[in-house]
Amino acid sequence: MKNILTAPFVEEMKKVTANMYRLGWDERNGGNISYMLDANEVAEYLDFDKVIRTIDTGFNADKLIGKIFIVTGSGKYFKNVQEDPEANLGIIRIAEDGITAELLWGYREGGRPTSELPAHLMSHMARLSVDPENRVVMHTHPTHTLAMNYVHELDEKKFTHTLWEMCTECIVVFPDGVGVLPWMLCGTNEIGEATAKKMEEFRFVIWGMHGIYGAGKDMDETFGLIETVEKAAQIYMLTAHLPRINTIKDSEMVELAEYFGVNYRKDFLNL
Ligand code: 13P
Ligand code: ZN
After folding, report:
1. Could you read off the pLDDT of 113-143 as tens digits, one per residue?
2. Ligand 1 neighbour 224 (Cβ under 6 A)
3. Which residue among 26, 139, 143, 146 has the greatest number of ligand 1 atoms within 8 angstroms of its CB, and so is best to mutate?
4. Contacts of 20 (CB under 8 A, 6+ apart)
5. Helix, strand, or coil (residue 37)
6. DSSP designation for 215
7. Bridge partner residues of 94 (DSSP)
8. Segments of 38-151 assigned E as strands
9. pTM over 0.70
């Protein structure tokens, strides 16, 4: 068996959590990541017959039975993942009953998966139903996107439109727009179900006055989506209080979307 600490997927988790921490998005234990792994790859590092312990998730993830995920631990700090992955991350497999997670590695010292596991696994199920290549779900508290929640209407069309206006790349990177949920109690199955419903339509979902969820086929794509939205929100926050004398017009957004061949939300433009 190879040493799990050298596995590429552990390396990816270390790198992305460190990046997100340095960007200031994941203060304290803020944020969580789940990454669906290829069982054949994991088998090079772990014995699937050795379940360390089982964890009751409190919800049914029957479409993910047998699937393996590496997930950040609840209450763990992104800041600390790099130096001690085994205490701050865990590898779980969804058991035959759909509601139990079998711990195969990590969460040393009695840890457990993120309190946002319902939103993560329900989002995986939702994304996989529309995009079989989806592997990553990230939750984070990006500063400018969050700031924008306080000064911009929390309306999907209006929020998306404002973001699209802020950087030329936006409509190309997230042509599906951003989904928006109002403030809701986090860590619950209810917010998980609401997030998953949005994830059928959007790869990026705002949790009002809390943070965001992003999904994608790999770490780069998911992280790239989040940083693009965050950059647009930053431009908005830097300019919202100033007189606006230039903008990207809707006709120009159409030009961009058509040139790059993306399937964009036409109903989010004012044509
Ligand atoms: P966890 O520490 O349980 O992952 O929670 C962090 C968070 O961001 C809650 O929304
Ligand atoms: Zn959070």
Report:
1. 999 999 999 999 999 999 999 999 999 999 9
2. no
3. 139
4. 26, 31, 78, 140, 223
5. strand
6. E
7. 101
8. 53-56, 68-72, 89-94, 100-106, 136-140
9. yes
Q: Which domains, ranges and CATH numbers included, belong to the chain?
A: 1-114 (3.40.225.10), 116-271 (3.40.225.10)
Beta strand 68-72 pairing with 179-181:
unpaired
The one catalytic residue among 11, 83, 102, 116: 116
Cβ of 29 closer than 6 Å to ligand 1, yes or no, is yes
**Residue numbers of the chain with a pLDDT score lower than 70:** none
Which of 102, 83, 106 is closest to 93 using CA atoms? 102
Q: Is 114 in the pocket of ligand 1 (CB under 6 A)?
A: yes
Residue 170 half-sphere exposure toward CB, CA atoms < 13 A:
27
What is the distance between the alpha carbons of residues 30 and 24, in angstroms, rounded to a whole number? 10
pLDDT score at 251: 98
Residue 142, both tokens: 């990006």
CB 103 within 8 A of CB 90: yes
* Intra-chain end-to-end CA distance of the chain, in Å: 59
The verdict on whether 200 is a catalytic residue reads: no
pLDDT at 64: 98
Q: Whose CA is nearest to atom 6 of ligand 1?
A: 30
- To 10 degrees, what angle do helices 8-22 and 219-239 make? 10
